[in-house]
């Protein structure tokens, strides 16, 4: 392996992602860990063009992030950032316009948990059906993919623009939503590892909660990282 280039930052790089145009997205908190966070810190996400070294800083005003820890870009070019001290996932456009902020769920949906239990230790695949809906299927004991366990339309207008949704912060008595790893599939779904609840949340591209995809019933314990391969497997 040959090092082509190295970049020195004025912060401590955490989450990394590559955009659809080849730029680099980096979470840049001012402290090595969130335990060392100070309210005086202005923690940002930086986008760097590798060809020109031009940079765009998101969150310079200090009111967008508390401690951005992971970043991803969805199919529509929206930037998705998990902020585990703000207990939220923020989805915004490259212009900086916020589309939505997801604060987790008040409680586990029983149906979602039951579905997750039924897919325990199965491989998952994301695809589209004949109606052009995004579907997630699980591999059964016979090795074949069974009927889809979730289906959600894109949530875009007829012109292809995102439909904004207001997602209020819930008042919860549960452990606070603690988003860590974040990833997006080729259809725009956002998958978030929730460390506190031992689960993976499945959101649509605009941040609307669809279901808990994996829970402690599937052996999840403190998930911190997540990835999806080119075939759509989690």
From TrEMBL:
Coiled-coil ranges from the UniProt annotation: none
SUPFAM superfamilies in UniProt: NHL repeat
Gene3D superfamilies referenced in this protein's UniProt entry, alphabetically: TolB, C-terminal domain (2.120.10.30)
Molecular-function GO terms, alphabetical: ubiquitin protein ligase activity; zinc ion binding
Top-level taxon of the source organism: Eukaryota
Organism listed in the record: Mytilus edulis
InterPro entries given in the database record: 6-blade_b-propeller_TolB-like, TRIM-NHL_E3_ligases
Skewed-composition ranges (Polar residues): 115-130
Single GO BP term: protein polyubiquitination
Alphabetical UniProt keywords: Acyltransferase, Transferase
Protein name: TRIM71
Annotated stretches, region: Disordered: 109-130, 152-178
Keyword Acyltransferase on entry: yes
EC number: 2.3.2.27
């Amino acid at each position: 392996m040959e090092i082509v280039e190295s970049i020195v930052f004025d912060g401590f790089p955490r989450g990394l992602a590559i955009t659809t145009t080849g730029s680099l997205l980096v979470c840049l908190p001012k402290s090595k860990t969130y335990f060392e966070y100070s309210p005086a810190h202005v923690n940002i996400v930086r986008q760097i063009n590798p060809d020109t070294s031009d940079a765009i800083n998101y969150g310079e005003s200090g009111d967008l992030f508390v401690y951005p820890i992971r970043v991803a870009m969805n199919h529509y070019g929206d930037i998705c950032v998990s902020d585990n001290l703000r207990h939220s996932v923020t989805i915004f456009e490259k212009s900086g316009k916020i589309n939505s902020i997801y604060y987790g769920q008040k409680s586990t949906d029983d149906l979602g948990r039951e579905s997750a239990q039924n897919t325990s230790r199965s491989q998952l695949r994301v695809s589209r059906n004949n109606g052009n809906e995004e579907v997630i299927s699980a591999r059964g004991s016979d090795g074949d993919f069974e009927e889809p366990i979730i289906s959600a339309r894109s949530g875009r207008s007829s012109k292809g623009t995102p439909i904004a949704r207001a997602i209020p912060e819930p008042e919860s008595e549960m452990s606070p939503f603690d988003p860590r790893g974040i990833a997006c599939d080729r259809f725009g779904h956002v998958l978030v590892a929730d460390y506190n609840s031992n689960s993976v949340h499945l959101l649509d591209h605009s941040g609307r909660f669809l279901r808990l995809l994996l829970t402690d019933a599937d052996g999840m314990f403190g998930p911190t990282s997540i990835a999806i391969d080119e075939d759509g497997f989690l």
